[in-house]
Design a protein that fits this description.
Elements (H helix, E strand, L loop, with lengths): L1 E5 L4 H13 L4 E3 L11 H12 L6 E6 L3 H7 L7 E3 L3 H11 L3 E5 L5 H13 L6 H14 L2
Parallel strand pairs: 1-2, 1-3, 3-5, 4-5
Helix pairs in contact: 1-5, 2-3, 4-5
Length: 147
């Protein structure tokens, strides 16, 4: 399942992503914000999306705010989350292929709608390589989380 969330800084682009996902026939759940609220706080949405994504290995998430930095910091506090801020399609592809990223965060202030939709498409279509070295590195991260 795909989960999406944004604060006010990414709200308009989140709505565009939802239209894109419907056209591509992706199943998703919008965890908020459900309406524009200039006083909302990004950690609320990052934690919601992170918790839902962490429930199952095949889940993915998309977060939007003004810079993407805050969303990544907050989402990565959730055990099992590998959130990455991405600014282009190559970064999105690499994050999944090599790091099995399960959440991407996008900057509403620096990316166009066209760029974001391209990034989302690559993120959703790319699969983790499962090469031995990548699996080994991810195991080190999950082992560290268990400490």
């Amino acid at each position: 399942m795909l989960y999406i969330g944004s604060d006010h800084g990414g709200f308009k682009l989140k709505e565009k992503i939802k239209e894109f996902l419907v056209k591509k026939e992706y199943e998703f759940d919008d965890l908020g914000n459900s309406e524009f609220d200039a006083k909302d706080d990004y950690p609320d949405f990052a934690f919601l999306v992170g918790e839902k994504v962490a429930e199952h290995a095949s889940n993915k998430g998309i977060l939007l705010c003004r810079s993407s930095a805050g969303m990544v910091i907050a989402a990565n506090k959730v055990k099992g989350i590998r959130a990455v801020a991405v600014s282009n399609k190559k970064e999105a592809e690499h994050a999944v292929l090599h790091n099995d990223a399960n959440i991407i965060a996008l900057a509403g202030d620096w990316l166009t709608e066209k760029e974001i939709l391209g990034i989302v498409d690559i993120f959703l279509e790319t699969e983790f390589k499962k090469e031995k070295r990548h699996v080994r590195r991810l195991k080190k991260i999950s082992d560290y989380e268990e400490k």
